Amino acid sequence: MVIAWRSRAWFTGGAVVAAMVGEAVALPNLAGLEHVVALLTAVLIAATGEVFGSYWPRVLGGVRAARLLATESRQRTA
User: Fold this and answer.
1) What's this model's pTM, rounded to 2 decimal places?
2) Which residues cross the membrane (predicted)?
């Protein structure tokens, strides 16, 4: 599901979700419910990656820039 989300294969991802939900409804058992929970978890992970995917690289870039400025400042004063 996450691969379908990342590659923008909306029809394929939707078909997988529909098939798993249909199976869970047609054959109510623990395995079907586990698959539905796994799909929901995958969708949440993919959505979180879309929303916050560029957050940490920007934060780490800021930390690197601050470290570089501090190093240059120490070298000038020494």
Assistant:
1) 0.59
2) 36-57
Domain count, the chain: 1
8-state DSSP, 3: H
CA of 8: how far to CAs of 5, 14, 46, in Å?
Answer: 5, 11, 11
The per-residue pLDDT for range 6-63, each reduced to its tens digit, is: 788 889 988 988 998 998 899 889 988 998 999 999 888 888 888 877 777 778 888 8
Domain range holding 72?
2-77
3-state SS record for 8-67 = CCHHHHHHHHHHHHHHHHHCCCHHHHHHHHHHHHHHHHHHHHHHHCCHHHHHHHHHHHHH
Structure tokens at 40: 């929901």
- Asked if 25 and 36 touch (Cβ cutoff 8 Å), the reply is no
